[in-house]
Amino acid sequence: MSTETGRRHVAGLPAWDRCAVMGVVNVTPDSFSDGGRWFDTTAAVKHGLALVSEGADLVDVGGESTRPGATRVDEAEELRRVVPVVRGLASEGVTVSVDTMRASVAEQALAAGAALVNDVSGGLADPAMIPAVAEAGAPFVVMHWRGFLQGGNVKGVYDDVVTEVVDELHARVEAVLRGGIAPDRIIVDPGLGFSKDAEHDLALLARLDRLLGLGRPLLVAASRKRFLGRVLAGPDGAVPPARERDAATAAVSTLAAHAGAWAVRVHEVRATADAVRVVRAVQEARTAHGDARAAHQEARAAHRHTHTGADGAQGAGHGAEGAR
Fold first, then answer.
1. Fewer Cβ close by (within 10 Å): the C or N end of the chain?
2. Cβ-count burial of 275 within 10 angstroms (0-12 exposed, 13-18 middle, 19+ buried)?
């Protein structure tokens, strides 16, 4: 699978020649990672601009925590949190994604300047979402989702997590297409951490090629998630807090970029922005080396052919002389 499959251009968004970096702005008091730090509109806009200055290509603005057990905010509160931040960032020329499961929030955010709708439910939480996005002609992230992270949905059960996630995403993409969203505006996301244990998340990262096989641009959102905490746990089993998982996040970003992901979604941008640019530089060097090697081999083959042809002609001449 070519790395360009997952990195293909998404209609309605800028074209990047490498894995894009999506910075996160949580306008919430209870996010698992940075709840409350950017709850004020002015602080949130300032933070989004800082992420861009550190290398983010687009900024994902969300007003509702999706951590396990989180209580949903009402529509009015989500709108109050999100729309002013989207408007403020868009007015500064930032490419903005809105992270929401509500069609009304998506509509108003798009009207305020958002360019992309990132729905962790893939349009399942609100039946009005797909028609609204289709009507707006906006790009749409379809994430693998098995329901709100409450009760039995917190811990998913899988026989083969990679096959099941791929199959369920494929089915959801087909539903989104039937709903009127254009094929070149659909992005897929395996939903790391959503109804998945650490071993499930790691298995999905190990087989990103299967997800790329869906033929859609791929978004990988691993930033600071629980499975990284489990990987980094000390000998006593103590799990580092979310904000101490940024180096591990950058490692995942490197793996995803190398595999061919369209974008990675991260809280701390600078390390990941550096990582994806290094991956791109190495890929360019590999391509240049391959082209140079192919040209060298072609030149050698042409040289051999020229000399073989000359020897053959000379041999034919001697044969003719012998005949005389």
1. C
2. buried
Contact 78, 90 (CB under 8 A): no
Q: Is the dihedral of CA 219, 222, 227, 231 positive or negative?
A: positive
3-state class (DSSP) for residue 59: strand
241 CB contacts (<8 Å, ≥6 apart)? Answer: 229
Q: What's the distance, CA 292 to chain centroid?
A: 32
Here the tokens at position 254 are 């490197």
Q: How far apart are the first and last CA of the chain?
A: 62
Q: Residue 96 in 3-state DSSP?
A: strand
Q: Give CA–CA dist 194/9, Å, rounded.
A: 26
- Measured in degrees and rounded to the nearest 5, phi and psi for residue 282 equal -65, -40
Task: Quote the CA–CA distance of 169 and 183 in Å, as a whole number.
Answer: 14
Mean of pLDDT over the chain: 88
Residue holding tokens 């003719």? 320
Answer for the pair 44, 78: CB distance below 8 angstroms, yes or no: no
Q: How far is CA 209 from CA 6, 63, 128, 198, in A?
A: 9, 32, 32, 19
Q: What angle is formed at CA 165 by the lines to CA 28 and CA 24, rounded to 5 degrees? A: 25
Count CB neighbours of 223 within 10 A.
27
Residue for token pair 């509109």: 41
Going by C-alpha positions, the residue among 225, 286, 232, 261 that lies closest to residue 21 is: 261
**Taking a C-beta distance cutoff of 8 angstroms, is the pair 25, 59 a contact?**
yes
pLDDT tens track for 118-130: 999 999 999 999 9
Q: What is d(CA 83, CA 102) in angstroms, rounded to the nearest whole number?
A: 13
| 207-235 tens-digit pLDDT | 999 999 999 999 999 999 999 999 999 99
Q: What is the pLDDT of residue 185?
A: 98
Closest to 134 measured CA to CA, from 119, 144, 112, 145: 119
Can you tell me which residue has the tokens 């290094």?
A: 278
Active-site residue set: 225, 265
